[in-house]
Amino acid sequence: MKLYYTPKSHFSRKVRILLDAWGLDATLEDVGNVAEASAPAFGPNPLMKVPTLVDADRTVFDSDHIAYYLVALHDPNDQFAVATRDVDALNARAVMNGVMAAEVEIILARRTGTDTGAHRRFGKILESIPAGLAYLEARAEVFTGPPSYAGFHLVSLWDHLALYEVVPLDYPRLAAHVARITNLPYVARSAPR
Ligand SMILES: N[C@@H](CCC(=O)N[C@@H](CS)C(=O)NCC(=O)O)C(=O)O
């Protein structure tokens, strides 16, 4: 298996934590600067985003779809509740993905020379990050219990926000869950550097 990724990518980290938790080997292919429009670096992904998984003759796009693909093959009992149908967990997943996507838009716009403060569109995107985090803080019980994909998702989001300092991180309930989940060796190993 090959995973196109970057060491700092939070969407890729969700998948890397699962791979590590299951003890699965995958070659990690660093695509470099994700702001670049250099199609070949991203392998088969026409959207020029990471992660992408290539498993023999199968290519899978999008972090959650990769997680569904892997759980079906390697963890049929779904110990981390990847394929949950719980609406609260799915809402939390949607909000976490939205916060992560908003952060990517802000970071990549700035990296490529856009003054995000000068555009109302970016103002809204930026505002959605603390709004999403406040939503999660108010519903942090979704992260309680045994290790779960929701918790891995939260740590991936949180560590990336902490690294790039796009918004302050004053969410004590979320911080406590992150501190607990980060103690798992298979989570700590992929911390962004
Ligand atoms: N929905 C996708 C989002 C992937 C994504 O946005 N990845 C970022 C890096 S963390 C990226 O490659 N961005 C490049 C770009 O937006 O041009 C997923 O879950 O895999």
Distance between the termini: 23 Å
| Helicity range | 40-55%
What's the count of strands? 4
Biggest sheet features: 4 strands, mixed
Widest sheet, order of strands:
2-1-3-4
Estimate the global geometry from the Cα principal axes: globular
Could you say which structural class the secondary elements and strand pairing correspond to?
alpha+beta
How many domains would you count in the coordinates? 2
Number of helical regions: 7
Average predicted confidence as pLDDT:
97
Beta fraction: 5-15%
CATH C-level name of the largest domain: Mainly Alpha
Q: Which kinds of small molecule does this entry bind, naming each only once?
A: glutathione
Poorly predicted sequence stretches spanning 5 or more consecutive residues: none
Rg from alpha-carbon coordinates: 16 Å
Q: What is the CATH third-level topology name of the largest domain?
A: Glutathione S-transferase Yfyf (Class Pi), Chain A, domain 2
Instruction: Return the string of H and E elements.
Output: EHEEEHHHHHH
